[in-house]
Amino acid sequence: MDISKAKDSIVEFIRDKTKEAGVKGAVIGISGGIDSALTAYLTVEALGKENVLGIHMPELNLTPAEDVLDATEVADRLGIEFKTVDISEILSAYLNSIPESSASNSHSNGNLKARIRMSTLYYYANMMSRTVMGTGNKTEILLGYFTKYGDGGVDFEPIGDLYKTEVKEMSALLGIPEEIITKAPSARLWADQTDEEELGITYELVDRFLALLLEGETPQVAQNTLGLTSTQRDSVVKRINANLHKQKAPAIAELRSLR
Ligand SMILES: Nc1ncnc2c1ncn2[C@@H]1O[C@H](COP(=O)(O)OP(=O)(O)OC[C@H]2O[C@@H]([n+]3cccc(C(=O)O)c3)[C@H](O)[C@@H]2O)[C@@H](O)[C@H]1O
Ligand SMILES: Nc1ncnc2c1ncn2[C@@H]1O[C@H](COP(=O)(O)OP(=O)(O)OP(=O)(O)O)[C@@H](O)[C@H]1O
Ligand SMILES: [Mg+2]
Q: Residues 6 or more apart from 195 whose CB is under 8 A from it?
């Protein structure tokens, strides 16, 4: 991959898609992580800093201070409009209103946080006649490692054809702060969550595994080539297959033959 040309191509994509949508600007959730930092940099290059709104949405007692600082640093360096919306009270209102909710249900609660962030981004997009710029990368999309209608609920996916390792490479090229590039990727949906621990494999390895599968290798050959354990192979393949639905629009019950 020629990372510099890939950057130009993504910038053009953002410009074209925004124009096609008939708007001038975009809204981006800026977490303090690398995916949203890179997306913000690319969107500013495409649309201009005055047309990008960054929104940081921390959760009390969960979002680390370094994320708040890193998100602010991204916005400051880019000179974009930047807002902070604390999601803690929205989350509490949801959980207090759902009789069966439980603080211990980290899976449902974690995905709810991603969906609250999505709703907040669309609130601003509606209000400002802008689109929501997605931050999903190729690794996350192939694995379905995102919340359906949460961080997956966006208008465009500019970095969706870049593996996570390529996201790092492009971020270094653009001069994104080193601490953001080297920080362990995490969705921060529950305490101590990290992507690589939840996935049971490093991004370095899973990216190479996915690339081999896309080249037509069998999971077994890809596993042997990379020296993965059979548990790693099976869990990645299972994740891909279980999440294929996230890459499609909801299936419609077709009634054509009855007309
Ligand atoms: N075959 C099928 N056809 C149609 N729909 C199907 C389906 N199977 C499940 N579903 C639906 O999908 C739901 C499950 O999907 P979903 O709600 O997304 O939930 P799920 O995939 O179980 O969880 C999301 C995963 O993404 C991770 N994540 C989330 C957000 C950000 C990041 C990050 O890296 O930043 C990572 C998170 O840690 C977790 O592992 C089911 O409850 C069901 O409604
Ligand atoms: N605290 C937050 N404030 C604003 N947006 C958030 C927050 N947490 C998550 N998001 C949104 O959800 C997206 C998905 O999170 P994800 O963790 O995959 O990306 P990231 O934080 O940018 O990078 P990394 O994967 O390296 O942590 C983010 O890119 C961002 O757009
Ligand atoms: Mg993150």
A: 145, 184, 185, 186, 187, 203
Domain identity same for 237 and 175:
no
What is the structure's pLDDT at 224?
98
Range of the domain at 154: 3-183
- Last residue in a domain, options 183, 214, 237: 183
pLDDT in tens, 129-152: 999 999 999 999 999 999 999 999
Number of domains in the chain: 2
The per-residue pLDDT for 33 is 97
Give, for 42, the enclosing helix (H) or strand (E). Answer: helix 34-47
Among the atoms of ligand 1, which is closest to the Cα of residue 35?
35
- The ipTM value here is 0.98
Indicate whether residue 171 lines ligand 2 (CB < 6 A): no
Q: Which residues surround ligand 3, an ion (CB under 5 A)?
A: 31, 33
Whether the full predicted model's pTM is greater than 0.95, yes or no, is yes
